[in-house]
Design a protein that fits this description.
Blueprint: H1 4-16, H2 19-26, H3 30-44, E1 49-52, E2 55-58, H4 60-87, E3 92-98, H5 100-117, E4 121-127, H6 130-139, E5 144-150, E6 166-180, E7 191-192, E8 200-203, H7 206-218, E9 224-228, H8 232-240, E10 246-249, H9 250-255, E11 261-264, E12 266-267, E13 271-278, H10 280-283, H11 286-305
Parallel strand pairs: 3-4, 3-5, 7-12, 8-9
Antiparallel strand pairs: 1-2, 5-13, 6-10, 6-11, 6-13
Helix pairs in contact: 1-2, 1-3, 1-4, 2-3, 5-11
Length: 312
């Protein structure tokens, strides 16, 4: 096996014309150079250096190695520089995925922090709900996912191996009831889920629909879902039009509003937990860790400065 040190020796001998001069240029002793040449000749199975008096010259095989050493060593130096840049946060790439309400609230400030602090880091963003983003993380198509889980359910809903992931909590996201302004419960301070057994429901994303069923089952009834959409602006529009009621998390309500709906806390209360998810190996990548920290800072800022809009 030909290593980089051997190639450097062959190039130095070609450039300097002797073992002594080559040793001086590389900072080695002359015996060390001789030993490295002998080892390289053993590995290649041929003579690489011919001694002529006090000088040496390369054989044809030695000239081949010295010629290729130029490109190989240049490529290695370039790779070392790129790795050093990544390790020092002077460069790097992070592939981030987040669910829609997270991408509208948590992600923008986090990406702005990363760009301000580490302008050479490139963050590529794609939007995906937790099942898809976690599958992408597991497949190596994503480095960091912003996901969520509802109380009483695991992160992957049985679809992912959670032992593969490192999970950092970002925030708790309270779930509210949204009703039309003329709904019988609209003048209440708190809505009991059990009082909504006869109402039609507007359901959101698949994971949110599962949460809706779980909440209603706990209250003693199965929800009658009239419409389903993953667009929460549409959910609020359907509710405003009197087509049903809906459960909507605070993150969504902080980024989407409708003056013709009433927002109520629910009894019993429910919430989802928003998480940053990566793998143990990726967590050690400086650019991924920097993005994780930015998401955590964005979550703190959001909790302090972005309250849910006042109910209509």
């Amino acid at each position: 096996m030909i290593d980089a040190a051997g190639l450097r020796v062959m190039k130095a001998i070609a450039d300097e014309g002797s073992f002594t001069a080559a040793a001086a240029s590389l900072g080695y002793s002359q015996p060390a150079i001789s030993q490295m040449v002998r080892r390289l000749e053993q590995r290649t199975g041929t003579v690489l250096v011919e001694r002529v008096g006090r000088s040496v010259r390369l054989t044809e095989a030695g000239e081949v190695l010295a010629r290729h050493a130029i490109g190989v060593l240049a490529a290695l130096e370039s790779a070392e520089e790129e790795v050093a840049a990544i390790a020092g946060l002077r460069a790097g790439r992070v592939r981030l995925m987040a669910f829609p309400s997270g991408s509208a609230t948590l992600v923008p400030r986090a990406l702005a922090l990363v760009r301000e602090r580490y302008p050479q880091i490139c963050v590529r963003f794609a939007e995906a709900e937790p099942p898809e983003s976690l599958a992408a993380l597991r497949a190596g198509d994503c480095d960091l996912a912003v996901a969520f889980t509802y109380e009483g359910t695991d992160l992957g809903r049985g679809e992912e191996d959670l032992d593969l992931f490192v999970v950092e909590k970002l925030l708790d996201d309270e779930v509210r009831l949204v009703v039309p302004l003329d709904h019988p419960l609209a003048d209440q301070d708190v809505a009991r889920i059990a009082d909504l057994a006869e109402d039609p429901w507007i359901a959101g994303c698949p994971r949110c629909r599962g949460h809706l069923v779980q909440v209603c089952d706990s209250a003693g009834f199965s929800p009658r879902v009239g419409f389903e959409t993953e667009d929460y602006v549409a959910v609020l529009g359907f509710v405003a039009a009197g087509l049903g009621v809906a459960l909507v998390p605070d993150l969504i309500l902080s980024s989407a509003s409708n003056p013709r709906v009433k927002i109520l806390p629910i009894d019993p209360p429910s919430r989802r937990t928003v998480l940053a998810v990566t793998t143990p190996d990726l967590r050690r990548v400086p650019a991924v860790e920097a993005t994780m920290r930015a998401l955590q800072e964005s979550a703190v800022h959001l909790a302090q400065h972005a309250p849910v809009p006042a109910p209509a």
